[in-house]
Specification:
This protein is α+β, with helices and mostly antiparallel strands and 744 residues long. It is built from 18 helices and 34 strands.
Length: 744
């Protein structure tokens, strides 16, 4: 039967699933963005944090009052303002109390609120909390109609839409959050620097970002560290609202007896757990990837103290630390994504200038609202005082009416033309207030309030004066959080970008001898040691040895294939000698129809000869061949029907090139006739009537060409009689030349 519509259940409609899902997902996304993940540019708070602070204020947990259990606070927040999980709310409370997470904590915690090692806080029933002085500044004036209120989720109470925020919390404490399709990441900053920038922006509304960066030099993290980002990058990040900052740990060298030393890390980067950092360093030590480091110890008490012992006193501290910066979280990049809800509750990425201006606009509005609220209070009080003065001038008549009339309030209003509030105030006066001295105090208060009323009216009509008041407010803020105050000193040092420190590969990989074995069927592995390593190796049934290359774990291998491409492999990345290794084709993108021609150990600065089967080739610098991807690098461009044939190192003393074809014709010509290129087809080395190039080798003509005749036999041939010009056909080799037609 079709669904029935009833008054109790509401209308029932048939809706396409895709439309229903789209509508509901959009609602969810907007809810996540607006009510959970993005902070408000005005007070820098998300709803859960704002509700926490407001609930604590309602519980009168001020900085000068006793602590209350965190469970009580969490219960009030859930019951009145934020109907979500208690653990999520408690986690938010804990973070607001952690001095290593927030530059200026908003909650004063008593008990175990976690530590920089990454340990969790104690359960909420064991910890206590109250507001800090910074949080009190955020709430300052909230009872004076400084901000709008809205109904809570159940409609039984009200909560503030935003806090008055006499503190630039968004940039001072930063924020992190992930919504649907957008995120925010704002690092903390120094309030004294922010106040200076605010003062400058009030005086010069058109100030540029570069000028503001002179005031706000960069983030100021609660855990300190060294900011080593170049100034131009900092300026660009603040201009666009997106970027990142390079942050390093602070370290120092402690010299010891015998010329030895140890490095002591005293500050670690922001949001890096100390325990996990040490665990990572220890893991790299076990994997032998920190061969310059001997040991790491945690000697921290209240202050961070990580001791790093070098393996040798000959290791430079800078090189040791550079290797650690590259491989561990002793150096991190802290992102900046100034994506916030603006004053219209619209998510937007702001520049530094826009964020500061938004805060100034908010404080300007708060000033006007508080001034209007005060005017209303003064007007009500002046109205009451005017009624009091009427009573004093007609005291006997007032007393008579009160004693004799059945409805004294109505009689007073009619007799003296009083308002209802004035008549009620007169009726509520105490007898002791009827003395002459009290009348004088009332007249004095009336005069003072009248003067204040006129001043506030003038203030609301005078914008430059209001901006002057804001400027004075920001100067007070700068004074309250100056360098001499407990929270004011800048903790993160703005350091120069580090100069390039060359870290030898041995600093990252332990150097030890290995022999790389590549079988005929393309299985590769690295066995420890040289010499007997290849002889002792076993292969799968039907497979056999093909290449055995002695090298070190720090070496790179160049693999040359018939498609003219060079592939690069790190010896340390190869599978170990146990088993049969792994297929080479899993490590490089070598087509199935292509074969390998040579495997060389990379030697920087060397030059190589490359040649194709059609007799074309050239000289290429070896440094140009190192590839970073599995695809390798195309070096030799092949003609139709040709394939790569030769890859040989050029001896430094070589001055001639010997080439031989499949037709057993041998030609020798000066090496200088070959061009040096990085890629291409090259030039013709030798011309053939039948077949193609068999082999090519560079040598020193005066010494002759050594040719291998067998596994342990070789012979040197004098080839001066075979000299010719490049691209000639050549002639048959001398007597005794091997029949296989290769030079080795």
């Amino acid at each position: 039967m079709p669904p029935q519509s009833t008054a109790e259940s509401g209308e029932v409609r048939e809706v396409r699933l895709v439309e229903a899902l789209s509508e509901r997902y959009l609602s969810y996304a907007l809810s996540t963005i607006m009510s959970r993940s993005l902070p408000d540019v005005r007070d820098g708070l998300k709803p859960v944090h704002r509700r926490l602070l407001y609930a604590m204020r309602e519980l009168r947990l001020n900085p000068d009052t006793p602590f209350k259990k965190s469970a009580r606070v969490v219960g009030d927040v859930i019951g009145k303002y934020h109907p979500h999980g208690d653990q999520a709310i408690y986690d938010a409370l804990v973070r607001l109390a952690q001095d290593f997470a927030l530059r200026y904590p908003l909650i004063d915690g008593q008990g175990n609120f976690g530590n920089i090692d990454g340990d969790n806080a104690a359960a909420m029933r064991y910890t206590e909390a109250r507001l800090t002085a910074v949080a009190a500044r955020l709430l300052e004036g909230i009872d004076e109609d400084a901000v709008d209120f809205r109904a809570t989720y159940d409609g039984e109470a009200e909560e503030p839409v935003v806090l008055p925020a006499n503190f630039p919390n968004l940039l001072a404490n930063g924020a992190q959050g992930i919504a649907v399709g957008m995120a925010t990441s704002i690092p903390p900053h120094n309030v004294a620097e922010l106040a200076e920038a605010l003062i400058h922006l009030v005086k010069h509304p058109g100030a540029g970002v570069e000028t503001l960066v002179d005031k706000v030099q960069g983030p100021d993290f609660p855990t300190g560290g060294l900011l080593v980002e170049p100034r131009e990058s900092i300026v660009e990040a603040y201009r666009s609202g997106r970027g990142s900052f390079r942050l390093r740990a602070r370290w120092e060298v402690e010299r010891q007896k015998g010329g030895t030393y140890q490095v002591v890390v005293t500050e670690i980067p922001y949001q890096v757990g100390k325990a996990k950092l040490i665990e990572r360093i220890a893991e790299l030590l076990n994997q032998k990837k920190l061969v310059m480091l001997a040991d790491v110890r945690d000697e921290s008490t209240e202050d961070v103290r990580l001791v790093l012992e070098p393996r040798s006193r000959n290791v430079e501290p800078e090189v040791l630390m550079e290797s650690l910066f590259r491989q561990t979280d002793l150096e991190v990049r802290v992102p900046l994504n100034l994506n916030v809800l603006d004053g219209e509750q619209t998510p937007r990425v702001l520049s530094l200038r826009e964020a500061l201006q938004a805060y100034i606009d908010h404080r300007h509005e708060v000033l006007q609202r508080r001034s209007r609220h005060r005017l209303e209070r003064i007007a009500k009080r002046l109205d009451v005082l005017a009624g009091y003065l009427v009573a004093y001038l007609n005291l006997d008549e007032v007393i008579r009416i009160i004693r004799e009339e059945d409805e004294p309030r109505a009689a007073l209003m009619q007799r003296f033309e009083l308002t209802e509030a004035q008549a009620e105030a007169i009726l509520n006066m105490r007898l002791r207030a009827l003395r002459k001295l009290e009348e004088m105090e009332i007249r004095k208060e009336h005069a003072q309030l009248t003067e204040e009323q006129a001043d506030l009216i003038a203030l609301l009509d005078d914008e430059p004066r209001r901006l002057k008041l804001l400027e004075r407010e920001f100067k007070d803020l700068k004074s309250d959080f100056g360098p001499d105050t407990p929270l004011g000193r800048r903790r993160t040092e703005i350091a120069e970008p580090p100069t390039a420190v060359i870290v030898p590969l041995e600093a990252v990989i332990e150097r030890e001898p290995v022999t790389v074995l590549l079988s005929a069927k393309g299985w590769i592995r690295a066995m420890k040691g040289h010499g007997t390593a290849a002889a002792d190796a076993k292969y799968k049934e039907g497979d056999k040895a093909r290449y055995a290359v002695p090298c070190q774990t720090t070496d790179k291998l160049l693999v040359f294939a018939t498609n003219g491409r060079i592939y690069t492999l790190g010896a340390d990345k190869l599978p170990g000698g146990r088993g049969f290794g792994e297929p080479l084709r899993l490590m490089i993108d070598l087509p199935n129809d292509q074969d390998l021609l040579a495997v060389l150990v990379h030697r920087p600065g060397r030059k190589l000869l490359v040649a194709a089967s059609d007799g074309r080739g050239f000289v290429v610098p070896e440094d140009e061949l190192v590839a970073q991807t599995k695809n390798g690098k195309q070096v030799l461009n092949l003609g139709e029907g040709a394939e790569a044939q030769v890859l040989r190192p050029l001896p430094e003393e070589a001055d001639h090139l010997a080439v031989i074809g499949e037709n057993r014709k041998l030609l020798v010509f000066p090496l200088a006739e070959l061009p040096e290129m990085t890629r291409g087809r090259g030039v013709t080395l030798q011309k053939f009537r039948d077949g193609g190039l068999k082999d090519a080798k560079a040598f020193r003509l005066e010494d002759g060409l050594e040719v291998r005749l067998g596994p342990e036999r070789s012979r040197t041939f004098d080839l001066r009689d075979f000299l010719g010009k490049r691209a000639q056909a050549g002639r048959l080799p001398p007597s005794g030349f091997p029949k296989h037609g290769r030079f080795d």
